[in-house]
Amino acid sequence: MNGFERATREPVQRHDFDDGDHAQGPQSGDRLLSSGGVLPFLVGATVPAGRPLLLLSGHTPPVICRDAPADSIAAFGDTHAQTDGCLRELERSLRRLGLEMGDLVQLRVYVVGDPALGGRMDNEGFSRAYARWFGTPEQPHRVARTRVQVVGLVNPGWLVEIEAIAAA
Questions:
Q1: Which residue among 11, 33, 111, 167 is least crowded, i.e. fewest CB within 10 A of its CB?
Q2: What is the DSSP string of 17-78?
């Protein structure tokens, strides 16, 4: 696959709730308001007919400390570092296909509980890294997102793995 033609693509319609009340259903616009302000993800997205979807396998964090054992958290960093690393790897994959982060419409994020937090998922670390990539002036689009805590991933040092769907 050499990439996707961008010139003739219809835009993705991104859905939010205008007041944070999920019972009312999706509204137009690109903001999700709630009592806490704008949330960093969408309720959903509609991809125009004829625009292919690209389903990307799980992206895992790169090694950041080569001196640490290859199956240790120290080799990959905490949840914040691993989330940022996974998103960088995802961006590289998209660019090789002629796409960009703004083409993403959905993320599925698997997060292992951090032993340093008593086995709880590091929501704050994840959210800080995620906020650098979505809903920013440089990349204003947000995605529909699911984040789940899992018992473990293939490498015991991984705390984060991210699958994605892009509208090509």
A1: 11
A2: -SSS-GGG--BSSS--EETTEE-SSBSEEEPPTT--EEEEEEE-PPPS-TTS-TTSHHHH-S
